[in-house]
Amino acid sequence: MLEKRYEPKDIEKKWYDFWIEKNYFRAEAKSDRPPYCIVIPPPNVTGSLHIGHALDITLQDIMIRWKRMSGFNTLWLPGTDHAGIATQNVVEKELRKQGTDRHTLGREKFIEKVWEWKKLYGGTIINQLKSMGASCDWSRERFTLDEGLSRAVREVFVRLYEEGLIYRGEYLINWCPRCHTALSDLEVEHEDVQGKLYYMKYNFADREGHITVATTRPETYLGDTAVAVNPEDERYKHLIGKMVRLPIINRDIPVIADEFVDSSFGTGAVKVTPAHDPNDFEMGKRHDLQFINILTGDGRMSEEAGPYKGQDRFECRKNVLNDLNEMGQLEKATDHAMSVGHCYRCRTIVEPYLSMQWFVKIKPLAEEAIRAVKDGGVKIIPSTWENSYFDWMENIKDWCISRQIWWGHRIPVWYCEKCGETIVSRETPAVCKCGSVELRQDEDVLDTWFSSALWPFSTLGWPYDTDDLKTFYPTSVLITGFDILFFWVARMMMMGLKFMKEEPFRHVYIHALIRDAEGQKMSKSKGNVVDPLKMTEAFGTDAFRFTLAAYAAQGRDIKFSEQRVEGYRHFLNKIWNVARFISMNIKEGEATDLTIKVRDLSLADRWILSRLSAVCSEVNQSLEEYRFNDAAGILYQFVWHELCDWYVEMIKPELYGENTESKRAALSALLHVFEVSLALLHPFMPFVTEEIWQQLPGKKDTESLCVRKYPSPDEGIGDKDAEAKMSVVMDAIIGIRSIRGELNLSPSLELEALIRTSDNTEEILNDNIAYIQKLARAKGIKTGKDLQPVKNAATAIKPSMEIFVPLEGLFDINAEIGRLNKEKSKIEGDIMFVQKKLQNEDFIKKAPKAVIDENKAKYADYMEKLQSVQNNIDKLVQWGKSDD
C-alpha cells in the first residue's frame, strides 16, 4: 500500500540505486537491437549543476529512456571536460590562499596539485547529474584528459600537421592579461560601452603643420608605424608618402594610402598599429610595415613603450593623454559608443597581441561541415539555427589552438636545442635526427575545445576500431544550448567528417535559453539565478524535470517560474492519489486476472481506451520530432483531466455498486489505462512512476518500468464512435456545470435540466443519462428535439444542444444582479486606484520596474474580472427578460 503522501526524498535514491544495480543503463557493444547513442555535452570538471545543465540532462534522459523502452540498444555516454583555463584558475586561487603560486611549485608539481583537486572535487557535477535521474552508462564514463582521449588528441594533431592543416606562426591573437593566454574569437565576449574617441595631432617631420588621427586606444600610438588615408580622399592625397613624427617618442612614420580606410571615420586619417589591432595587422602585412609590440603578457608596457615602460596599460593611457594635452597634441575627445572584448572566464578586457601561436587551417574542414548540413546529412532542429551556422562557417577564421597555461593537453611538439629541428610526434622522442638528446617540448597546451571536438568518436575508442565505435558511431542526436553551437557543435562536425568520414550525429537539437519569470537573462549580479538543486529539494526531481520538458518549446526562450514547478508537483500528487484509489478498490488476490474483456466495456471504458490509443500515438510522434513540450502537455491533459477528472469520476458508481461484473470491467480498464499512463510518463518523471508501478497489482512482464516496452497505440483500442458519443455527454455536463458556476450555485445543490437536441444527440444522452446525473449533479433531466424552454431559466448552448436550467425556487435573479453590481462597483474602484498610479509620471520614473509590472498585472487582472462580472450581469438580465 502506498504511503498517504508522496515524499520524493524517500524513493529517488532507492530507485536510482536499483537501476544501477540491475545494469539497466549499460549498453551492449554488440547487439541485434538497433543502436541509439547520445554523447553528453561534457560539463566542466569545476562545475556544479546549473539550470542550463538541468534542461540539457532532462531532455537527453527523456530521449534515452524513451528509446531504451522502445527496444533500442541505448548508450548515453557521460564524461567531464578538463576545462583548462577554468580549472587552472580554481587551483591557482587555492594556492594563493596557501601563500604560494604555480611558478613557485613548478609545472610538474602544479599539475599534480590539479589532479589532486580533480580527485577531491571533480565528481561533484557527476553526482548531481545522477540526482537528476540521468540514465547514463557510467561504466563508460570519460574525461577529456584520460589516457584514451589523450592518445586521440595526439593522433589528430599529428595527422593535421602532416597534412599542412596545423601550422605555427606569429599572428595577432586575443590575449587575456589576467589568464596569461591566447583566446579564440569565440572565447571573447563583447560588451557595448560608452567610450571616448581621442583626436591626436601628429606633426609633420620636415615642415610646419600636422595631421590629426582619431583613436579609442591612445596608448597604442606608441606602437604606430604608419598613418593611413584612403587613396581617393582629396583632403590627404598630397600627403601620401610624407613623414610624420610621433610625439614624446619622436619616431618618424610614413603616411600611406590604403582602400580599407573609411574616410568618414574620425578625421579620415587613421593611426596604424600592426602589433595591436587586427585590421592594422593586415594593413601592416600589405605595406611591409614594422610590427612593434608595446605590451608584455601581463598587460604592462614593454621596453618599446619608452618612458612608459612597466606601467599598467590603463595607467599608461591616462599618462599619455595628460602628456599629449600638456604638449598641445591632444586636439579633443568626444563620446563614442564601442564594443569591448572581455575574457569569457575572468571578464578581463582582452588585448590584440602579437605572439607565436599554433593554428588550425580551418576553411578546408569547414567546407565539408557546411555541405553536411546543406545536403541533409545533419539536421539542425529548429532549422532557424541553420542560417547562423552557415554564416559563421562561411566566414570562419583559422583557429588559434595554443594556450599559455599548464593544465591541458600539452602540444606534442619538441624543439632540438642543437640544430633547431621541430619534431611533431605521437610519442615522446628520445633523440633528434642530428643525434642530440637536448629536446625541449613546446610549453603551450591545446585549447580545451580541441579535445572536446573529438568527443563523439574519441570516447568510443578511436583511433582504434573498437566494437563501440562500429556500433554507436555516428551518434543519434546531440542536444545542447545555442551558446556552444560554434564553440563545440561545428568543431565536432569538422573533426568527425575529417577523421571518421561521416557526420558525428544525425540530428542536432538546439534548446532555448532559460530566463527568469520576467524574461531577463539569469546572472549572479541580478540575483535571479535559479538553483536546480533547490528546486529538486523543494518539489522533487520529477516535478522539476516535467516542468523543464513542458517549457521546452522549439525556438522560444523559457521564462522560468517556480510556481510552475509547484503546479507540476500537484500533478504528481494527483497521480499518487489515483494509485492509492486503485489499491483501495482492489481486494487482495483479486488483481491477478483483471484482464479487459471488450464485450463488458461501458461507453466510458471504450472512450478512455480510445483516448489512450491516440495519446500513445501523439506522444511517440512528439518525441520523434523533439517536441518535448507537446509530449508533456498531451500527457498532462490526458492524465489529469481525461483520466482523473472524467474517467475516474464516471466509473465510481460501478466501483461502489453491487454489480460484480461491472465493477471488474471498470477496474480492469482503469488499471490498464493507469499502468500504460505510468509507462508513458516514465521518461519524464522516472522516480514516482517506478515507485507506483512496482506496487501496482497484477502480473508484469519486466522487473522494472525502466525496461518495460514503451506504449504504442495498440495498448489502447481506437474507437472514434465512443469518442464522438462521449463528447456529446461531456458537452451536456460542462453546460450544466457552467450555469452552476456562473450563478454561484452550491455544488451540492441538485439541478433540473432540459436539453433541446438535434441530430442523434437525444439517443446518446438518454443512453448515458447516469453519467450526466452524477457528474453534473442533476436529478431531473429531460431531452428532446421539440422541448420548449421554460420561463426563468438559465441557458447554455453547446454543439447539437441547448441546455436550460429552471431557476424558480432556487435563485432570485434580481438579487443576484444586485450582488454582481456591488461587486462590479468594487472592481471599478480598484481599477481607478491602480490607473491613477500608472498615469502618475512621478511614480513611473521612481518606482522599481518590478513594482510597475506588478501594478500593470493588477490592472489587467481587474479588467478581466470586470468583463467577467459584466458578462454575468448581461446573461442574468437576458434570462430575466425570458420570464416576461
Keywords:
alpha/beta, 28 helices, 884 residues
Task: Explain what you see.
- By secondary structure, the chain is of the alpha/beta class.
- Helix content is about 45%, strand content about 20%.
- It is globular.
- It starts with 7 loop residues before the first helix and ends with a helix.
Mean pLDDT: 92
Radius of gyration, in Å, reads 36 Å
Number of strands: 29
Largest sheet: 7 strands, mixed
| Fraction of residues in β-strands | 15-25%
C-alpha termini separation: 60 Å
Q: Structural class, judged by helices and strands?
A: alpha/beta
Point out poorly predicted stretches: none
Helix content: 40-55%
Count of discrete alpha- or pi-helical segments spanning 4 or more residues: 28
Q: How does the overall form come out from the CA principal axes?
A: globular
